[in-house]
Amino acid sequence: MGGYFKILASERLKMSRSFIVLLLLLSPAISVLVGLMSNIEGADQPWLVLLGVMGMIHALLFLPILSGIFAAFICRYEHHGGGWKQLLVLPVTRTGVYFAKYTVVMVMLAIIQLLFLGAMLLVGAIKGIDAPVDWEIIGRCLAGGWVACLPLAALQLAVSLMWSSFAAPLALNVVFTIPNMLVVNSAQFGPYYPWAQPFIATVPGQAMEGGGFGAMNLPLENLMVTVLGSFVVFLIFGWTYFKMKEV
Amino acid sequence: MRELVIETKDLNKKYRGRYAVRNLNLEIGRGEIYGFLGPNGAGKTTTIRMLLGLIRPTMGSIHIFGKDLRKEKLNILRKVGSLVEYPSNYGHLTAVQNLEAVRRILDVPKSRIDEVLSIVSLTKDAKRPVKGYSLGMKQRLGIATALLGNPELLILDEPTNGLDPEGIHEIRELIRSMPQQHGITVLVSSHLLSEVEQMAGTVGIIREGELVFQDTISNLQQQASGGFRLVVSEPAEALQLIRGQGYAGRLEDGGLRLDQLSDPEVALLVKRLVDHNHAIYRVEEKRRTLEDIFMQVIEQGGLS
Question: Where does the sequence pass through the membrane (chain A) (predicted)?
């Protein structure tokens, strides 16, 4: 497919030796601190409560912001030194390049989810939670959080491809991430807001004291229909744009 | 019949109703160094971007290696190395890593990296991050990247732009060696004729998006002759005599300026003048420099 795997190998090299690798650790590290400071004693389902506590900042803030940062970053070194020209005169298709770039973003987010899982297990061990890990719920929540990043990452990638500035897509992303705290309160709008989707998918209502609020108690299946629908729209939008782009 | 590596037919690119490139018919033969000349903004880079598939032509066709660029883009690009406008690189990586990022896509052996680095003499600095490079070094790295995939065609857009004289010389020698040593056809663009005439065999001159001249340098040079200058003892009377013989001429700087003449015509004219007791001090051919011709082509859109 237009040299997709070769482009991936090339992308991996370009990502190396950059500060981006540190960003992978940021959210799990902060989540560990938040987890350690939390009080989960006497909880019925300590792992679920831990997920609620640690996942709050992670899914509400870091997942959407990092989706934007990774998307912008992967375009940055191409915009910056005339890299698009160098890359697109090679025997590659634009489709191959586009999907390789998108894959890198999603792989980075998947690594973060795994590190976050590791952070949870670490906090659990330190706190001495002796209840067995509820793999089914936790696995579903973390995987769901990742899937919920698909449309946002596609949207941010499209914007980052369009704007040669690094800061502009990031600013846009932050501006739309901040209202998350309000948006997730709305069962009506929350599920349709790409920046809120990671949180809604990650933290189930039952993880919160008092059963959560707003969009958190909607069935995951409904959310996933919206997520996958918007994912397809944003992905095709970015892909078509990139195919037509004049370099 | 020479084999054409690049052939464009009525190539057009229109931006907002204005033609950046208009009815361009390039013909570049195998093993040639083709100098693509024109002032800044004449459409050189636009043409090159079309040749490389970075932008789509509004109209017209491009054939490279005899294949249609629209249909066989990847097969063509596999055999083309290029440097468009300013050199592209990833500043946070070293030269070796930059080349490796491209090598992974081209799928050539790793040893090729060292080879191209030595061709452009960057071996010594290969392990330093590129952001600390001088413009000349970045330019050379760009050429190394272009050479990485063993191309049959090299497209270099203003490769000596912003270089110091030594750098210009190096790059020029490098380009000159390409057809002989590696059998590579080269298209090199520039806004300076003096740049190109030292390496190119053929030139195409583009002006306001249109190709106004395309021929060999030697044919361009033949058209460089711009008549004769005679210095004689009595210019005014000599002029009358010359006009009487049916030749056009005028007084200029105390001498006579004549249009271009064949050798026998010159001989006859001199004989007539001597017969009429004119003392002849000088007979000079007035050669226009290529630069003059280039300027004329650029200003008037063709050779008169």
Answer: 47-75, 96-125, 137-159, 166-184, 223-242
Which of B50, B58, B64, B92 to probe by mutation at the A interface, max A CB count within 10 Å?
A: B92
Structural domain containing residue A236: 4-244
Number of domains in chain A: 1
Beta-bridged to residue B7, according to DSSP, are B27, B63
Query: Please, what are the domains in chain B?
Result: 4-221 (3.40.50.300), 225-287 (3.30.70)
At residue B237, the pLDDT reads 87
Strand, coil or helix: what is B13?
strand
B241-254, pLDDT tens digit by residue? 888 888 888 888 88
* Whole-angstrom distance, CA of residue B286 vs CA of residue B224: 9
Percentage of residues in chain A having pLDDT higher than 70: 93
Nearest to A33 by CA among A119, A136, A118: A119
Quick check: B54 and A89 CB within 8 A?
yes
3-state secondary structure of B283: strand
Whole-number pLDDT of residue B225: 62
CB A70 within 8 A of CB A214: no
Among partner residues B53, B88, B100, which is closest to A86 by beta-carbon distance? B88
Do you know the residue count of chain A? 247
Mean pLDDT of A199-212: 74
Q: What is the pLDDT of residues B139-149, one digit of tens each?
A: 889 999 999 99
CA pair distance A20, A29, nearest whole angstrom: 15
Query: What mean pLDDT value characterizes chain B?
Result: 88
In SS3 terms, B188-231 reads as: EEECCHHHHHCCCCEEEEEECCEEEEEEEHHHHHHCCEEEEEEE
CB contact under 8 A, A89 and B55: no
Cross-chain Cβ contact B77/A86 below 8 Å:
no
3-class state of residue A243 by DSSP: helix
Pick from B195, B93, B201: nearest CA to B138: B93
Spatial CA neighbour of B105 closest among B130, B134, B74, B141: B74
Token pair belonging to B60: 């017209």
User: Which distant-in-sequence residues (6+ apart) come within 8 Å of A81 by Cβ?
Assistant: B88, B89, B90, B91
A42 CB burial (10 A radius; 0-12, 13-18, 19+)? exposed
